[in-house]
Write a structure and sequence with these properties.
Blueprint (H helix, E strand, L loop, with lengths): L2 H19 L17 H4 L7 H19 L4 H21 L1 H4 L10 H24 L5 H25 L6
Helix pairs in contact: 1-3, 3-4, 4-6, 6-7
């Protein structure tokens, strides 16, 4: 089995376990939980087949839904960011994405932060919109999206810096 495949399987399992058993029990300021499991989607290879990527993203979200008894909101949010990821990659990285030479670890902090921020905000907006699912609570949705996204972005960026692969 290819080392990269083992890396992705290990990343998938570790992110789910850390999210479910540690981070889901953190309620910073009463309602803020960082959602780091989406790192799997953020770091997926650009050359991955779309069908495989969508299936893995769905399984990732569905696993989170099964552990959290959340009725499919994580699966929907993961599928949305998997679907919008190429657009975000193209808009943030331009020609580097077109020629498939983007490596997240070799990019500057600004490009990496922009990429992570866009996908995290999209994920959280979809997640909280579906979770609350009431237009009269739009301010609550926006507040939860903003603050949880900021918290998640900080934690994700720290993880990306701390666990950066030296060979890529």
């Amino acid at each position: 089995m290819n080392n990269n495949v083992l890396l992705y399987i290990g990343r998938f399992i570790i992110l789910i376990l850390v999210q479910v058993f540690i981070l889901n029990h953190i309620n910073f300021l009463g309602y803020l939980n960082p959602f780091i499991y989406i790192i799997f989607i953020l770091l997926a290879p650009i050359t991955i087949r779309k069908s495989v990527f969508f299936l893995l993203s769905f399984i990732l979200g569905l696993t989170m839904d099964m552990f959290g008894d959340s009725g499919g909101v994580h699966a929907a949010a993961c599928l949305i960011i998997a679907y919008t990821r190429p657009v975000v990659l193209r808009s943030v990285f331009g020609l580097s994405y077109e020629f498939q030479t983007v490596k997240l670890n070799t990019l500057g902090i600004g490009e990496r932060l922009t990429y992570v921020t866009l996908l995290v905000f999209i994920h959280h907006l979809v997640l909280f919109s579906l979770e609350i699912f009431n237009f009269s609570h739009i301010l609550l949705i926006l507040k939860k999206t903003l603050f949880t996204s900021l918290f998640s972005i900080v934690v994700i960026m720290l993880i990306l810096v701390l666990f950066r692969r030296k060979d890529s």
